[in-house]
Amino acid sequence: MKAFWLRTKPYLFFGLAWAIPGLGHILQRKIHKGIIFFAGILALLLLGLRMGGQVGLLYDLQPYTIIRFIGGLGSGLFFAAVKLAGAGAGNPLSPAFDFGSTYLICAGLINFLVAFNAFELAREAGHV
């Protein structure tokens, strides 16, 4: 049982880091790094929403729509919270709509990188 836990621990850190940005680092005692990741990704999300950006849904298979959807999914539980709150529909008439949508996409893609980094840290620590 212990060998199974040690093999799956990096994947657990990946999942936690994806769900809540920075949590995978905080659990590995990289507290400052985790807080910075959380604050940075949250700032991108809030700025993107404030600018009237659109959180992506997959409604067709155009390249930009796919990237926007993947970026949205990368935001973890923030994606679900924004959708449940009814926010993130976007305002195409806003002059900052494209910038806001780009901030939201970048927040998700950066969170994927943060989650992969948490996975790699766990792997290097000998959990695999």
Explain this structure to me?
With 128 residues, the protein is mostly helical. It has one domain. Helix content is 73%, strand content 0%. Helix 3 (31-50) runs antiparallel to helix 6 and helix 4 (63-74) crosses helix 6. The longest helix is centred in the C-terminal third of the chain and has 31 residues, at 97-127.
Helix content: over 70%
Number of strands: 0
Sheet with the most strands?
none
Counting H and I runs of at least 4 residues, what is the number of helices? 6
**What is the gyration radius calculated from CA atoms?**
16 Å
Tally of domains: 1
**Low-pLDDT regions:** none
User: Structural class, from secondary structure content?
Assistant: mainly alpha
Calculate the terminal CA-CA distance, rounded to whole Å.
14 Å
Strand content: under 5%
**Average pLDDT for all residues:** 90
Listing every helix as H and every strand as E from the N terminus to the C terminus, the arrangement reads HHHHHH
Shape summary: elongated
Question: Could you give the topology of this structure?
Answer:
Blueprint: H1 2-19, H2 23-27, H3 31-50, H4 63-74, H5 77-84, H6 97-127
Question: What's this model, at a glance?
Answer:
With 128 residues, the chain is mainly α.
Keywords:
128 residues; mainly alpha
